[in-house]
Amino acid sequence: MPKVSVVMAVHNGRPYLKEAAESILRQSLRDFELIVVNDGSSDDSAALLEAFGDARIRVLRNQQQLGLSASLNRGADAASGDYIARMDADDVSRPGRLAAQVAFLDRHPKVSIVGSWARTIGEGPPQIWRYPTADADIRCAFLFHSVLVHSAVMWRRVDFEGHGLRYDESVERAQDYELWTRAAAHVRFANLPRVLQHYRVHPAQVGRKEASLQQAMADVVRARQLEALDVEANPEELALHHNLGRAIFPSGESGLDQVENWFGKILAANAGTEYLPGEALERIMSNYWGVACRRAAPAMGLAAWQRYQSSGLPRGSNFGLWVKAMLAEMRGQA
Known about the structure:
alpha/beta, disordered C terminus, 9 strands, 14 helices, nine-stranded mixed beta sheet
């Protein structure tokens, strides 16, 4: 029985499949199996996988395309490893990824799922996604969007099976975000503060081709969490929340009014329900509030930073120091 079962689903993924599979086969940790679910591909993906001639590769074939959620469930059901690691057919894992995640889970038995930071490759200038690393911060960030790179996670198989945690096969896109928010009631999360995955950005990416469907499902997940918080959002507040989850901030002083009032409402609701860890939620809010003020600064000038400092919303210590420096600079230019 391998230590890790790496699960990948592929549908006509020939252009990047070889590089993705090789990045797993070349891992420094050798005790793994790579389960590839060929989801009704009509290209030569299957032949490419067979050409590797590596006994660690197991290919499961769907006679017709079942979709990502069903394919990943099939792969997870076939897994025999202590840990299940996700991988996508167009991404690249760094050589030490599996070893680092296994070592972390071995040392932290109360954590059930661990991800990592990621670096984008392909289209556009490279970006590094530095997501929260602590469980409390991760589950609070879920209120706005997923902070686990789907192709970079590894989870403890017995914990997910014990709580019946599987991908919802009725969910076509954002199925990872939906699963993580359900899992949050049962398991703990972590992200390693290291770039262990290269996330490919390209025109044929499913998330880009079906962006509207992905956004619609993410909106559903966000709304469910607001309901769990016992927050009654009117249509304007709900639209604002969804936009913030997409990093779309309103402009001008009236926009800051909207953000400040909405965040105050969320914090007040959580104080009553204690659905989310209070201190972590304040940290997340302080980050979003700081960004909102920063985005408003070009139009509002010094007033945006004064608004940041005078608001009753929490202010992060690190961001506050940066804001003070900016205030000093802007006063010097006045």
